[in-house]
Amino acid sequence: MSQTRIAFIGGGNMARSLIAGLVADGHAPAALTVSDPVAEVRARLAKTYDVHTTDSNAEAVAAAEVLVLAVKPQVAPAVCRSLAAHLPRPAPLIVSVMAGVTEASICAWLGAETPLVRTMPNTPMLVQSGAIGLHANAATTPEQRNLAEEILRAGGLTRWVSTEPQLDAVTAVSGSGPAYFFLLMEALEDAAVAEGLDAEAARLLSIQTALGAARMAMESDESPQQLRERVTSPGGTTERALAVLTEGGVENLVARAVAAARARAEELSQLLGADA
Questions:
Q1: 76-84 and 103-110 helices, crossing angle to 10°
Q2: Start-to-end Cα distance in the chain
Q3: Which residues pair with 136 in a beta bridge?
């Protein structure tokens, strides 16, 4: 995989995070090409990762074995339609990291039966700690699925979903999820300050506690429920705090928040698909 020719259309944060992960994993920078209209973006990527950059999408895709679509969803129709005339035939594997843009829309714009893996990454991919959902269309071979997963693993943990609409649930859980945890950290930090800790101590203790809890949950064979019960001593401080959260309906609030995010993801997909 280290010599696979991968072209990125768009050099923003998601493309940069994947490039960083690929290069760190030993992928040859010479096999990576990034097309972006902004000269400063191209210069930064070339300097940091020693990859080839261009302002020509046609040049980028000419010899690509994998094409990563990493542009903003709003410009996806125009970008994909312009790419259609320049794609090699048979078409290379297309990997989309464009939020809310459906497989049907992408294939319609590209104008051909195209092997396509649609992904839903999240912002921790910027530090190679992402949680990334993937779905492949029927034209994608098992080998291409494996290749897409190898590429996306450079950004973090990957999981396949069996149907494309399930990516809306991935969006609601892990795509939007970092903001949920940031909000909890923010609230915990504010509460710590209110209890007399200085701002810096409150910030660091809140963040490290979140990191430690996540690592325990990831590395343990026990479920989050079991871990929670294990640190909740009868009559202790944690039990008293959790009682307040439960009485406030925290579980119901989380369920409502995720459902609302999933519904909005569906709405956005329909809006973006209207131009297919």
A1: 40
A2: 33
A3: 117
Q: What percent of the chain has pLDDT over 90?
A: 86
Amino acid 202 reads A
pTM, to two decimals: 0.89
Predicted confidence at residue 248, as pLDDT, reads 96
The residue to which tokens 């210069």 are assigned: 43
Angstrom distance (rounded) from CA 167 to CA 161: 7
Q: How far apart are CA 170 and CA 159, in angstroms?
A: 10
For 114-146, how does the pLDDT look when each residue is reduced to its tens digit (9 = 90+)? 999 999 999 999 899 999 999 999 999 999 999
Residue found under tokens 């297309």:
94
Under 8 Å CB-to-CB from 173, ≥6 apart: which residues? 258
Q: Using alpha carbons, select from 140, 192, 118, 168 the residue that is nearest to residue 270.
A: 168
Please count the other Cβ atoms lying within 10 Å of the Cβ belonging to residue 238.
11
Distance in angstroms (rounded) separating the CA atoms of residues 137 and 104: 9
Give the span between the Cα atoms of 90 and 274, in whole angstroms. Answer: 27
